[in-house]
Design a protein that fits this description.
Elements lengths: L11 H31 L6 H29 L5 H35 L9 H19 L8 E3 L6 E3 L6 H36 L8 H19 L10 H11 L2 H10 L6 H9 L13
Amino acid sequence: MAAYTLPEGFTEFDMFTFGTALLVGGLLGFFLNAISIVSFLTVKEMRNPSNFFVFNLAVADLCLNINGLTAAYASYLRYWPFGQDGCGYHGFQGMIAVLASISFMAAIAWDRYHQYCTIWTSKISCLYPVGQNGIIWILSIFWAAVPLMGWGVYDFEPMRTCCTLDYTRGDRDYVTYMLTLVLLYLMFPAITMLSCYDAIYKHFKKIHHHRFNTNMPLRVMLMCWGPYVLMCIYACFENVKVVSPKLRMVLPVVAKTNPIFNALLYSFGNEFYRGGVWHFLTGQKIVDPLIKKSK
């Protein structure tokens, strides 16, 4: 067995606890998102432009689950076995998944607005969402690759068994890169979701039929990612090392639970997607509900 030294501020029990949290969250999210993905691929009736957004969200979240499971494996080993280069690739892969996941949440909100409130989605070509999804993936890969080119750096989390953008440096490169990400991948998606779901809520109130809780998607995203992003913003202006290493590990672990909630909200809780999942699991078909548009 390889020799290892426990990271500062962590005990054997801490390593086991965090590893178990990452393992349970990763496996549960992987299982739920895998069902969502396989359902879309096997049930032909599910393959429409709106469900394609949900499918891509599940793919992004599955990638984040794999990132968390890798960290869980290293946590049980008590050390990172893949070297410094492996750390960079781990951070890169995780960043792609995070940026894509948040982008697809905003895209789904935009698509749902048109589903419920306009007649636009009934007229669009299936090629349009393919192009939009492709752009989201390309931009996510680009912005995740930027630290590999020197604008920011991927390095170890406090427990040294997983890797992310190094927020402990607090230099100009980190500050400018992080604030850019906050603007593009938190504020803009959050504003998009807020405006779209507010319009949907008004439509539901008008027809006296609330098909789903329009507050939940944005609340869940902010609940999972908000505390971690706040810590990263704090690191832009103050020395984040004064924050307990354990707290700095709790926040990304909480953030990595987002794929679980996304699967429950967007796949199993989506009236146009869950029928296909049920069909895949049981073989029983469910007729898609009709939408009453605003006049």
